[in-house]
Amino acid sequence: MRKNIVDILRKIFPFLFTVALWRLSVPWLNPAGILAIIPIYYCSFIRPVPYFTPFAILFCFLLDYKFDSLLTLTVWYCFYYAIMNIQSFIDLTHTNKNGVYGFMVFFGLLVFFMTVVHFGWLNLLSGAAMFLITSIMYIPTTILIKATQDD
Amino acid sequence: MNPKKSSSRLHTVIKSAVVAAILPFIVIYIIVARPNYNFTNGLAHFFMPIADGIGDFITWPLRVGGKIFRNIHDISVLQQENEQLRAQLTDALAKNTNCDVAILENQKLANELDVKRNTNFETVVADVIFDNSALNHETFMINRGYNDGIEPGMVVISFENTIIGTIIDSGADFSRVRALADSNTKIAVRIAGSEVYGFMTGNGVSAPTIDFLSDPKFQLSRGVKIVTSNISGILPPDIFVGTMMNESEIDVTNANKISRVMVLKYNTDQGKYK
Predict the structure, then answer these.
(1) Which of B3, B99, B134, B272 places its Cα 20 to 30 Å from the Cα of A69?
(2) CA atoms within 13 A on the CB side of B201
(3) ipTM over 0.95
């Protein structure tokens, strides 16, 4: 019984963790719950979790809604997902450091695009801060997910 | 070739093809559905409360912890603030008498000039539940929606009667508000005490700016007060917007400084303000 509950919790942890990060939005540290992009990326591309893709698309959409960024994140996620899975040249599941470099490319391009749409020095600074915080938080977050998944 | 491996590969390719197939639909939707995007807003109205409810359930210990920490901090600064407030109260009481005289004078003059004002609006009080300020966007959520009669376009003000933003989308029990600093904000304003009109534009993260003045010779300077104008027929007139910080930037009330707001309901049947 106890083992079953632990198993269920382990399976649903990436989903709940994504919801929690999305919900705990704080300006500057976690604007519009953007830290939820870490489990979304990690559980979609680095350590794929079953049935996570539709959930990830839904949360990209909800992040877009809170960001008021009109499906930018959703489109970018779908595009990246399609590119990464159709070809077999780049295999993100076997990258070093939990795929932090791949994440930085994924998220960096997204932030760059969202920043240049309304270019301004303060926007650039805010985008850089968001990129920096998310990249710093990536490794601890993914270690936590890994630990709960018994890897 | 291992059949299990090739079937797994095929499964991955099919999944990614399905995800890729979503892209053209999204692009066509963005082109066709502008500017209201009712479908995506409708989806958000359905999924937001569910995700929010689950999020509330999972994160309550963290949020309660945060609240306790904030309360302890608040109490520690309360005493000092109390002393300052007492001093300010004494000062304000002295000024109050002058204000009463000025209001009576104003009423008398308005009656003499037959100036009619529509300042009575039905209001809905709401709590700020999310501050979504990020990059060039300054939006926030309030816990009242169309069940309380809130519609897109309605004006959100603070308890100090200062405009905070406008409703851009309303779900059943929540609404999204575009704050004044948002890069998509463009509202008609007037220089208080004059007949000079202009447009205030948000720029994302800093103070909004004012331009396109109806009188190009008018020199804006620090301290000039700005109020809303109904020149575009969208906003009710004479709501305080902010004070000029320099010749172009306006110091407005940001959403991160408030926890409760009031929504001004439309006072006509056509979904507009008089």
Answers:
(1) B272
(2) 8
(3) no
